């Protein structure tokens, strides 16, 4: 069975995980951390997910990531899981939301995908036999002062 491992992380906590694709979300996408009312929140909170997913360009980035990941999954070596690591400064907001969106797409979870606005991408994976795991390495770590 083909496997996909998704691990969100914060560059401010430690180095990026070893992965086929490391996605740096620090400079181009809306950062909920700058709003004091969201700073202590995480991707577990709807307002954080909404803020990130309503950032211009994020859905296009996700569509591109899905295509890139699909390329890795189609490769000749199926004995090693494809590893994808979205990262942001602290790993609590942008990276965790993008990781959740990728997980919803590749696991075919249409409910979560619809909430995140990526259900069009997830439809192709509803009946696919793909082992998908999601880990948020730094989601529960303290907020980084910056």
Automatic annotation (TrEMBL):
What superkingdom heads the lineage?
A: Bacteria
Q: Name one Pfam family in it.
A: PapZ_C
Domain RapZ C-terminal, which positions? Answer: 3-109
What's the name of the protein? RapZ C-terminal domain-containing protein
């Amino acid at each position: 069975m083909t496997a996909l491992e998704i691990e969100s992380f914060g560059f401010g906590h430690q180095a990026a995980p070893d992965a086929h694709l490391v996605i740096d979300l620090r400079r181009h996408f809306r950062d909920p951390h700058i709003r004091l009312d969201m700073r202590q929140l995480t991707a577990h909170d709807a307002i954080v997910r909404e803020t990130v997913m309503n950032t211009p360009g994020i859905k296009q980035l996700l569509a591109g990531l899905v295509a890139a990941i699909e390329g890795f999954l189609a490769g000749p070596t199926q004995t090693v899981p494809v590893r994808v690591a979205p990262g942001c400064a602290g790993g609590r907001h942008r990276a965790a939301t993008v990781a959740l969106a990728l997980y919803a797409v590749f696991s075919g979870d249409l409910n979560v995908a619809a909430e995140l606005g990526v259900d069009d991408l997830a439809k192709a994976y509803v009946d696919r036999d793909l082992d998908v795991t999601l880990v948020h390495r730094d989601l529960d770590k303290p907020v980084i002062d910056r």
